[in-house]
Amino acid sequence: MRRLAFLLRPGWIALALVVIAFTYLCFMVLAPWQLGKNTRTSRENRQIEHSLNTPPVPLKTMLPQQDSSAADAQWRRVTATGHYLPDVQVLARLRVVEGDPAFEVLTPFVVDDGPTVLVDRGFVRPEGSHVPAIARPPVDTVTITARLRDSEPIAPGKDPFVRDAVQQVYSINTDQIAALTKVPLTGSYLQLVDNQPGGLGVIGIPHLDAGPFLSYGIQWISFGILAPIGLGYFVYSEIRVRRQEKQRVAATPVTVEEKLADRYGRRR
Predict the structure, then answer these.
(1) 186-198 pLDDT, tens per residue?
(2) What is the pTM of this model?
(3) What angle, rounded to 10 degrees, do the helices at 213-251 and 31-52 form?
(4) CA-CA-CA-CA torsion for 86, 88, 89, 90, nearest 10 degrees?
(5) Greatest C-alpha distance within the chain
(6) Which residue ranges make up each domain of the chain?
(7) In this structure, what is the dihedral angle of CA atoms 6, 9, 12, 17, given to the nearest 10 degrees?
(8) In whole angstroms, how far apart are CA 258 and each of 65, 224, 248, 262, 263?
(9) Is there a contact between 174 and 151 (Cβ–Cβ < 8 Å)?
(10) Where are the bilayer-spanning segments (predicted)?
């Protein structure tokens, strides 16, 4: 126990606590965070690839009822026949499209013999900080082709407001927009592809890139493993140095004069 007594010194205790906290963060926070992002990105890439290689299907096969959502079919192309509600319009603000700021224009669409779904008609560029003139969607019955999108989480601390006589929101959350417009909406929304009735600037699909998240997650796991190993190595090195010092002192011959000086020195 005497050999390990140095571990109870404040410096070693502080170092051990730092290593324990760092290891906990690596395994419980940082690695799961990066691996979770990798899982979400990989899932989205698979959905995009599937949508590119699969012909469109009728919307009602994916969203049969008003309370339907299709989280497992995001980016899937669908077709729907119905009509827009041109007097109900919401803008998603602070969006970035092709590297520049934009508004995304959102309008409900009533599917014939089906649910009412929110349609992202595309984007327009702001004029300074103001909303530009936006073309109204057609009022007649039309058929549209679009991609299914998941409802976004509500941006914390960002309340909807009205500016330039247009309702504006910070995220495309169908529940929030349904409450604002008093129009029931499905859980998923639609994003128009190019050359569609009522379409504006086309919003492209993300690039199929898994990103560095998997490697980052593995790195944090590695750091979490190496940190306690490093602490163990320092402890082992300290014990070895102390043992060698003790052996060196024990092996050093003591003269009679040194013994007498030590003896009489203690008595004084």
Answers:
(1) 999 999 999 999 9
(2) 0.66
(3) 150
(4) -160
(5) 115
(6) 10-53+211-251, 56-192
(7) 130
(8) 98, 51, 17, 6, 8
(9) yes
(10) 12-33, 213-236
